[in-house]
Write a structure and sequence with these properties.
Elements lengths: L1 E6 L3 E8 L2 E9 L5 H8 L8 E6 L3 H14 L4 E4 L21 H13 L5 E6 L2 E7 L5 E8 L1 H11 L22 H27 L5 E5 L3 H6 L5 E3 L3 H13 L7
Parallel strand pairs: 1-4, 4-5, 6-9, 9-10
Antiparallel strand pairs: 1-2, 2-3, 6-7, 7-8
Length: 259
């Protein structure tokens, strides 16, 4: 059994694969919780894993928790912590130091390349942070950008304006109009405007520079919200990072050792 893991800043996703077939898949929130306790609860009923491939951007604490859990539950299992150092099939990262490129972004590009071979692609991952990465038709990463996501925008506003704290405690529904008639609705509308304008403004600017139009693929927890305020063709792939981890795992299936 192969266990594939996408450890993001706020959510942990995993997928069990056996002989190329997806056996199960699930996810849970881990933000603000002890990683070892999250794993002990979430993975308590998982069957024995012989291979574990992890894309982790949640920090060393989560990495250590995964390593400790694997060593305790599945001694002898092959554990691969994927990174820019491991490289990726069919994708060449533009960063001057590819090891600094986020493994979640790399895995998403690998999956996008497989979905749209021979096509220029823009991958938008709308999570805790929002990343936008461009891939040309030959699989060359052209670069990307990073901006705060919905939650970080809200936290930044609350952290710098004590009087608005109460209004930030929960999200509210607001009308489509730009101008709102309550503080909570005004905050909700403003954050939505910043998120949507930031993402789609960047997409428009990147599209204008390209020799051929990029196909847009959205992923991440706020992908649906970004999709709702955009124009033009795009596709939502909720598990794009896990799909990329699966493809990267295939590359290492016959390689001994730990990457």
């Amino acid at each position: 059994m192969r266990l594939l893991v996408d450890a993001g800043n706020s959510r942990l996703k995993w997928r069990l694969v056996e002989n190329g077939r997806v056996v199960s898949q699930a996810a849970c929130d881990h933000r603000g919780r002890r990683a070892d306790e999250v794993l002990a609860q979430a993975w308590a009923v998982l069957p024995e894993a012989r291979e574990i491939f992890v894309a982790n951007v949640a920090g060393d604490g989560v990495r250590r928790a995964i390593e400790d859990h694997a060593a305790h539950r599945w001694p002898g299992a092959r554990l691969v912590m994927l990174s820019g150092r491991t490289g990726a099939p069919d994708v060449r990262v533009a960063y001057t130091d590819p090891t600094r490129f986020g493994i979640d972004r790399l895995a998403a590009l690998v999956a996008a390349r497989a979905l749209r071979p021979g096509c220029p692609v823009l991958v938008v991952d709308a999570g805790t942070a929002v990343t936008i990465d461009a891939l040309d038709a030959r699989g060359r990463h052209l670069g990307g950008l990073i901006m705060p996501g919905r939650r970080l925008l809200s936290e930044a506003l609350g952290g710098g304006t004590s009087a608005l704290g109460a209004a930030l405690d929960s999200r509210v529904e607001c009308a489509d109009e730009e101008l709102q008639v309550s503080t909570a609705a005004g905050i909700e509308a403003g954050i939505r405007r910043m998120l949507c304008s930031g993402v789609w403004g960047a997409i428009a600017a990147i599209q204008a520079r390209g020799e051929a139009p990029f196909e847009v693929i959205l992923t991440g927890g706020d992908a649906a919200e970004v999709d709702a305020c955009g124009e033009g063709a795009r596709e939502i792939r909720a598990d794009l990072v896990l799909d990329g981890v699966a493809r990267m795992a295939e590359r290492f299936a016959e390689t001994p050792g730990i990457a």
